[in-house]
Amino acid sequence: MFRITKTLFAVLAVAMTSQAAFALRPQEVVVVSNANVPESVSLGKHYAAVRGIPAENILLVKTTADYLVPRADYEAQIRRPLREFLVSNRLTSKVRCICLMWGVPVRVGAAAPKGKAGELMALYRTAGTKVQYRLAIDYKLLGTVARKFPTPTTDGLAPVGKLFESPIPAPSPPLPSQAQLKKDIDKLFEIKQAEVARLHDPAQRRIASRQLMGLQLDVYGLEGLIRHISKVKPPNPPDMLKLTRRRDEAKTRLEKLLKASQTSQNIRAAMDAMELVGGVHRTVSHANKWIKRLGQSDASVDSELALMWWRNYELIGQQLNPLYWRVPARTASSKIPPTMMTARIDGPTAVEARRIIDESVAAEKAGLKGTFYIDAGGKLPKYDLHLRKLRDFLLAKSRIKVVIDEDRTTFAEGTCPQAALYVGWYSLAKYVPAFTWNTGATGWHIASFEARHLRDPNSNEWCVKMLQNGVAATIGAVEEPYLTSFPIPEEFFPLLLTGKYTLAECYWRTVPNTSWRLTLIGDPLYTPFAANPQVSVDALPQGLAPATNRGPQTPARPQVAPSHPATRTTASPSPADRAR
């Protein structure tokens, strides 16, 4: 789900050239460690020392050591202290990147929807519960078909209860899930159709057939009823021409309502039209889809922190990244808060985090060497085009060795020696040990949940295993991010291969969204090909490379007034700071 708020439209209209000042420097990085985790503190100091980051750029926050931090604790223990720290230490015009160390939580939990989002959530929950209850009742009624033969008290097919005995059997809570109910109902419909066909008494068969038609209408709407009549050819069916005309009219009305504004009246009208077209099953699906969508306010901590200076932005779904290279760069506006680049030096244990620091520096000095492995043949052929475009670009414009696999399977175990770079898919949470990773190797596996258990050494997710086996930088999702959230491979890797831009810059220049579920794991200052560039900047698509004729510029200074001076170790929010 893409969210575009009024603020974001302003960003698109006047994207900040002040944030196009690339060539990230150590003094522009703030290091955030968890004061409650001694190894996090030592890692932060080690990283700052190795990279020449000033000691005054190190912040210790007091927060949970768990993978997940609740939304309220994220605000109070991480976001607000960081804002206050930068303001109090006069770093707001200097720092452009946040580096989170191992020990700082990876994922921030969902927030309870507020305002209009909260009202919509309540409406969909109420409506969804009602229609799911009806679906459970329909399943109970379906079980009586061809067993009991009450005289219908209606000449039509609705309401369905008038075709059955009273009282209607009430389902016992808790209700089964919609998916389970649909599976059970579909199976039972097949059984009951066969039972009705075997009835010898014409009167009983007529009653049972009307019950099946009534349930088809209730569960699957006019579309289901029309399919049922066409397939089963029951006795005395309704006029098919009238049914089809009625369905088409309802579909036209539904399409208009779904495009209309999300008012309570329009939502209820849309769900009524949806029920007529597709039955209570489709209505439950629609309500559940919106409940899930309105609850999508979780994110990776680092992706959320990219908007740390923004106030009152929508938390539902993702925000378009203002640093993304396809956002047009125009005159800067002091009213638009800056977007921070972020990354984390992390892994299943502190061992991997320290190795990332040391090996990134070593590989940078020597120049990353090895083979670029590209694994196409994933779930969607259309997305494989991106991987083939990357291959074609590299063969034409770079000096790096490229191996591409276009089979539907992943690279086989042990078939990828001396791997320097990798991108491919699709083996969900099942790492394949195909690679021998060279020092400083970089890449990621395109799949839904590869950083969901980043802190679990026993996980078989790609982020965990790649880090354990020697990768220095990777990207992973803490929850379903959707395919369009990943950096486009033929944008990210050519930029990295120039050796002119750091890992953080390449990522934030090419990742489309922020306040979302991807996390960049690696040293944000890492420039793998600084010593041995593989691609000329001139070979990049026009606009992908940051402008080189501008010197560093000062980002708009956030207007934040903490109620008390921040210290290096802090956990208390400013009472005056009501950011969201």
Structure description:
This protein has 580 residues and is of the alpha/beta class. It has two domains: 2-112 and 299-570, no CATH class; 136-292, no CATH class. The chain contains 14 helices and 19 strands. The protein has helices at 6-13, 38-51, 71-88, 115-142, 178-197, 202-232, 240-259, 264-294, 301-305, 350-366, 381-397, 462-468, 489-497, 503-510, and strands spanning 2-3, 15-16, 29-34, 58-61, 68-69, 97-101, 107-108, 299-300, 318-320, 329-330, 341-345, 371-375, 401-405, 416-424, 435-445, 474-477, 513-514, 518-521, 569-570. Strands 11-6-3-4-19 form a five-stranded parallel beta sheet, sandwiched between helices. The chain has a four-stranded parallel beta sheet with strand order 13-12-14-15. Strands 1-9-17 form a three-stranded mixed beta sheet, with no helix packed on it. The model is unreliable at 1-21, 330-334 and 549-580 (pLDDT under 50).
